[in-house]
Amino acid sequence: MSLAELKSQLPEYAKDLRLNLESVLGENGAPGLTQSQIAVIALASAIASRHVPFTASMAAWASEHADEDALRGARAAAAIMGMNNIYYRFLHLVGNDEYATLRAGLRMNVMSNPGGSKIDFELASLAVSAINGCGACLESHEKTLRKHEVGAQAIQSTARIAAVVHGVAVALEQAEAAAPPQAAAAA
Asked: What is the pTM of this model?
């Protein structure tokens, strides 16, 4: 299903999300980012939001705006942050500094060679970390991006894309849950 078809399934109460999605996916709606970066961030955000039909539609849309290496980096960011966000959020929230002194023992090699641009990978990692609510990872990726001279507007645009994509995934899931079963609708 195309992204346009999926957007049309958003209920009226999610009209703002539909309009915001159209905005943030356009180059003018995400200041500081290229169209390829927008695609990478949106795909990683959709994966992190875990709505399979929306993710498939977003992947098809993203493939029109970014090359396969960049999209591989988006998938890598979503996967590795799915692990890291849980682990580092645990370290932050548990309130016991002893755990931070212990070796994590988790493989994270993809972070040094994600495929595609390291900056794009960091932007995607920031977006996924925002969705997953890991303050430690957000802080780390934001500092890395700023060290590489990525501006505040690009970082804010990344957070806006993550927020909108996640909101759309939630609204689609709610709409599906509220829809009558197909058998009952046919009767």
From this structure: 0.93
40, 124 Cβ separation under 8 angstroms: yes
Instruction: In whole angstroms, give the CA distance from residue 141 to residue 166.
Output: 19
Helices (H), the chain: 3-8, 15-24, 35-49, 52-63, 68-94, 98-101, 118-132, 135-147, 152-178, 182-186
- Domains of the chain (ranges; CATH) run 3-186 (1.20.1290.10)
d(CA 72, CA 175): 30
Catalytic machinery residues: 134, 137
Q: How many CB atoms lie within 10 A of CB 42?
A: 28
* Chunked mean pLDDT (size 10), the chain, 187 residues: 90 96 92 97 98 97 97 96 96 94 93 89 98 96 98 98 98 91 54
Hey, what are 98's tokens? 């002893």
